[in-house]
Amino acid sequence: MSTEQQSASNPEQLRRVVIDPVTRVEGHGKVTLLLDEDNHVKQARLHIVEFRGFERFIQGRPYWELPLLVQRLCGICPVSHHLAAGKAIDQLVGVDQLTPSADKLRRLLHFGQVLQSHALHFYYLASPDLLFGFDSAMSKRNILGLLEDYPDLALQGIKLRKFGQEVIRMVTGKRIHGSGAIPGGMNKSLTVEERDYLLKDVDDAINWSQAGVKLASDIHLADAAFNNTFASIESGFMSLVGSGGELELYHGGLRGTDRAGNSVFDHFDYRHYHDIIHEEVKPWTYMKFPFFVPLGMDDGWYRVGPLARINLCDVITTPAAEQARFAFKNQAGHEAGAAVQSSLAFHWARMIEILHCAESIKTLLHDPDLLGNDLVVTGEKQLEGIGVIEAPRGTLFHHYEINEDDIVVKANLIVSTTSNNQAMNESVRQVAARYLDGQQLTEGLLNYIEVAIRAYDPCLSCATHALGKMPLQVELLDADGQLLHRLVKNSQGEVRE
Amino acid sequence: MKTNSISIDGQQITFREGQTIIQAALEAGIYIPYLCYHPDFEAHGSCKVCTVRVNGSHCSACTTFASDGQVVDNHCEDLNSSRRAITQMLFVEGNHLCPSCEKSGDCELQALGYYLKLFGSHFPHLFPHREVDATHPHILLDRDRCIFCELCVRASREVDQKNVFAISGRGIDSELVVNSPSGTLLDSGLDVNDKAAHVCPVGAILIKNQAFQVPIGQRKYDKNRIDDADLIEVKHDHIDS
Questions:
Q1: Per-window interface: A 44-63 vs B, CB < 8 A
Q2: Considering CB atoms only, which of A60, A64, A179 is closest to B215?
Q3: Domain ranges of chain A
Q4: pLDDT in tens, A326-383
Q5: Nearest CB to A65; choose among B84, B123, B211
Q6: CATH no. for B5-82+227-240
Q7: What is the second-level CATH architecture of the domain B95-223?
Q8: Cis peptide before A21 (omega within 30 of 0)
Q9: What is the largest CA-CA distance in chain A?
Q10: Radius of gyration (Cα) for chain B, nearest Å?
Q11: pLDDT of A290-333, one tens digit each?
Q12: A407 vs B132: CB contact, 8 Å cut-off?
């Protein structure tokens, strides 16, 4: 902490610097590689060296603050945390079933959220890699480069994201960090004006989404051999599904498969999630490693997110997205019915979900329940609540216990990216083994690792979403753990040794 | 000749005998920022946010009686700068986490911050450790947000006749205490209909199970800035009643 003068004559003009403490700032990923004597990669680790501590500091707060408090975990998909906490506190006030209006408002909100988050990731962050090449000039590999070379596409992405954000704003009052979910329901419905405002652009949003699906699939299929092997790993999957096995983002039962595609559990009541999912802690990262209990720690890791959802669902309830799902699952060279394991196929799956969201938003906007005023249900207070939702990045668990005075005494959050922790590590290792093995490290090679990590759209933090400026440190160690070579890329995108 | 008038920032207004400067100003639709003042209670003069310059001297507008011919400076940069610093100190001396506070949008401290263009806390946060008292079935006491205006103390003493609240300790160690055998609200006799349960200008004393029911856009200070005439008129009507 420094105070520049003891008694300055113009204190408000002066800069006050407070370092209290220097934190492990969110969003820093570190990759370490272990090599044998022949420079073959023997171990690759993605370290998450940030620590947020939400599970601890929400203890002692009244439960009704949770949806507003925990949404501050993130600025990209706060609505997911808002709604997962909202579902948990519904249980705390003894409510199992919302009114149709409240349920549909939450679903509308969530569709808007998934749409804008996916649009942000695909158009702003991932597409520059896909369109310009993984090791293209760094100055080009960003949204500005995209605007220069593909202006129509870039503008579509920007407008699509804006539409999703406007859906969020109409429901919660703000594009980011609004208020909506309250115990047992929602705090407002849509006015006719708000609904009509969204209806005005919804057909465009569907068209842009369809173009996005085509772009993602065209890119993938243009070099299917590469795209199906890059960072590709064999894993199990998990997601919510609806009662009929349909793609479900807001509420449903858990479906899990092993890496061979066999069912581990299906339509599982998520309130008993602890019977099927445990988390392993490793000393070198703050992120835990969840696994399916029946398969054990070594074999029970799995993937979540768009790829898991599109793989696991039997059908999508909106027609254009269902058509896209069918094309995805029946792509040339792919065994019919098998899960798509390609990590880069996350992008294609993500765009199918965008289309589903846009179609679903249109359907909901024509539903009169959105204008209804029956918004809250009450019940008998309970001391434990578990809310689960399919966030843009995958299945998200919020689990709270409160005391008789309404104060949170225990919290457990399994955030989507955590479920992909082992898979991201595996993908990094695969890329490292294939492209970095014995090589002199370059910025282009660094980006290969980023591309693998980025496919998962991880929320290591918001910095991951910083236009190819993901702070990364890659270290080459020999078999004795001695540092051979290190490259560091800071948050400004500058690479130094 | 006696005119019963004063000048505030060059505007002549009249006052009634026995009125303080802030009462006369609010009645005339002129906003003087304040936190511990409340028309229902005797002036407290502790927060100093309503400090004005009267004939060249600094005074609290809530405790200084209006007097014929006074020349009052209210909205000027040096006074607002001091008010801003006082408000910043209130923010850093407590734990005011507006993003998750249910009083956000209805909070006088937050609204005052916006009015004074307070864009940062300037001073280092002290992060005091203060207890939440959630023992009452209908009322929550969150000491993190207390600004020591003593409105609850005054309301409980003067209106509710209960003396539930008091300020204990000195300086930075001050805290709002509860007068009950257990020291908690549970056996304090505080009732959900008491004036003291509803008078808090910030989010320290709250009625349970009402959080976030008012959507963003419809909260008190979403619609009006704290100095807006509509809000001043509400106070004015209140004084007359």
A1: 60-62
A2: A179
A3: 25-52+424-496, 233-341
A4: 999 999 888 888 999 999 999 999 999 999 999 999 999 999 999 999 999 999 999 9
A5: B211
A6: 3.10.20.740
A7: 2-Layer Sandwich (3.30)
A8: yes
A9: 76
A10: 18
A11: 999 999 998 999 999 999 999 999 999 999 999 999 999 999 88
A12: yes
